[in-house]
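User: I'm writing a short methods note and want a consistent example. For Response regulator transcription factor, I'll paste the sequence; you return only the structure tokens, no commentary, since I'll be parsing the reply automatically.
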Amino acid sequence: MSEAPVTVFLVDDHALFRAGVRTELDSISDEVRVVGEAGSVAEAVAGIARTKPQVVLLDVHMPDGGGAEVLRRVRPELPDVVFLALSVSDAAEDVIAVIRAGARGYVTKTISSTELVRAITRVAEGDAVFSPRLAGFVLDAFADRPGSAPISDPELDLLTPRERDVLRLLARGYAYKEIASELFISVKTVETHVSSVLRKTQLSNRYELSRWASDRRLV
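Assistant:
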């Protein structure tokens, strides 16, 4: 007799992304079963309380507070629910913030479907799971070693979460159209975010922005 599948709740503010993840998880494995989804903090808190999943796949950046806020509101009431961050962001400060809030792992949205299933089952079993590059951020931060990943940066703090996402992809060489597709926004919105980032950082072009992002370990 096979073991019962791990129950999973999806939290992401992009409905298309949630639908894609749900379809993938339902189709490739009987090890996991999606029991609900939400696109906002309030919906997530209510849905997790109702379904009581074993694992919550949690986006880091959402308009009404993000993954850390979901963790703060759910964990005191449901301490047995395990949270695995699944985000486009691989910035050190995002990883550290959500782990400090109580997530058991953090993987990026470049992860394959089979790897995601494995990550879900591992955190359900009690393991901590990180994409390889991200594990170093966590070890550095919690060891408080010299050169550890910064938790806050006054200049970086001027940028909104979406501006950071756009900057990160821009610094990796993505074209505006590719950034728009990756983040489910329009090219015009990408241009607006880039203009805002240039103004806030007092830089003049994408090459300077790339160096600036690299210095802050955003790339």
